[in-house]
Amino acid sequence: MASAAAIDWASAEGLDLSHFWMPFTNNRFFKANPRLFVSAKDMHFTTADGRQVLDATSGLWCVNAGHGREAITEAIREAAGVLDFGPTFQLGHPLPFRLASELAAMMPAGLDRVFFTNSGSESADTALKMALAYHHAKGDSTRFRLIGRQRGYHGTNFGGMSVGGIGGNRRRYVSQVWGVDHLAHTHGDAVRFQRGLQPGNGGLAEELEELVALHGPETIAAVIVEPVAGSTGVLVPPQGYLQALRDITRKHGILLIFDEVITGFGRVGDAATAAEVFGVTPDIVTLAKGLTNATVPMGAVVASREVHDTIVNGSPAGIEFFHGYTYSGHPLASAAGLAALALYRQEGLFARTTALAPVWEEAMHGLRDCPNVIDIRNVGLVAGIELAPRDGAIGARAMEAFHRAFDAGLLIRVTGDIIALSPPLIVSEAQIGEIADKLRTVLHETA
Ligand SMILES: Cc1ncc(COP(=O)(O)O)c(C=O)c1O
């Protein structure tokens, strides 16, 4: 076995591809046609064969400040040399307390109690358990139902998968959390090539009233939605939709959870949360990805004072919220988070999203006349470009575009036949132009 010291970090020489069972990957295809990155800096990855690839997806929607940011890597190095690990069960160390304070200051007013996880999936499941614990602490134990949304994505753990609305994720794993129901998704075929939020709510949120009437408000613990659904292809909500969900949940004593794993940290506008950009405050926000600029795995669940105090003050003596992870508030992740938040602040990166959004919108909608493009939607520094599926081969056209783009030096992301784009917030106007130009060529080549 190679010792770490003997590893050439930027080389793929002599690599055995057989042992790593890759996530969400066609393993057989990849291992026959490997596409490997060996390093990254700012807006670019470098491939194993030495090519530069422009990152139009912030990795997996997560490298919001761009790659290889020295302030963050330096903080990780330093923290590792001081405290490699410190338990946070019944003991503590300063870094997660510092990070929680910084994070609380960036959240919508009233949301300032922070629970740390290691991923978006863990954040989703933590938030759902928090909602159940809240009602339990209030003596409202009949509130066990969780309402998600079709085409929602809340990660891969059982709770998130159950409230999520992706058939492929759910059908394979028959066992689901019991008592879950779903709202309709927010993407209507009637509205195509919409710039920004869709017009009018169209009664979509009011469907929640029907679910409340069906199940009884006294059985529903929480509603969880992404403010903008990302992983299922950038589904931008209608105007007023999130506020209507807020009004209905409040009316019935149901908690509202925004899954901001993608939409957090400046992705949709000049704020740390989409909640603030859209002016709607939920009871709980889930975060991950951009929290550490993706350098060290970390997620967070930020609860309102009311949710926190109800659980903490309303529980019998002892552990109030019987939940946690070995690595909740890990020193390296906390250090990375502190450095990432400082960088976002110092470089005004969230404001950059708002400043660049019109340029981005123009560039993306300029692809409307490309072959097979049937819809384009955008918000902040996010865009979804939907292609017509090939007969009997859903996803094949977009996957071909993905491979062609990679070979042409552009990293895009595809989900079904939708190309989802979300560049780091440091992207320049020239690079936005380059993304659009490269994509135009790729779309013309992809029959
Ligand atoms: C909205 C949302 N929630 C949860 C997750 C899961 O995050 P992770 O892959 O870190 O578990 C994702 C991942 O893309 C996501 O987009």
TrEMBL record:
InterPro entries: Aminotrans_3 (IPR005814), Aminotrans_3_PPA_site (IPR049704), PyrdxlP-dep_Trfase (IPR015424), PyrdxlP-dep_Trfase_major (IPR015421), PyrdxlP-dep_Trfase_small (IPR015422). Keywords: Aminotransferase, Pyridoxal phosphate, Transferase. Its cofactor is pyridoxal 5'-phosphate. GO terms for molecular function: transaminase activity. PROSITE patterns: AA_TRANSFER_CLASS_3. SUPFAM superfamilies: PLP-dependent transferases. It holds the Pfam family Aminotran_3. PANTHER family: ADENOSYLMETHIONINE-8-AMINO-7-OXONONANOATE AMINOTRANSFERASE (PTHR42684), BETA-ALANINE--PYRUVATE AMINOTRANSFERASE (PTHR42684:SF1). Belongs to the class-III pyridoxal-phosphate-dependent aminotransferase family. This is Aminotransferase class III-fold pyridoxal phosphate-dependent enzyme. It comes from Novosphingobium cyanobacteriorum. The lineage of its organism: Bacteria, Pseudomonadati, Pseudomonadota, Alphaproteobacteria, Sphingomonadales.
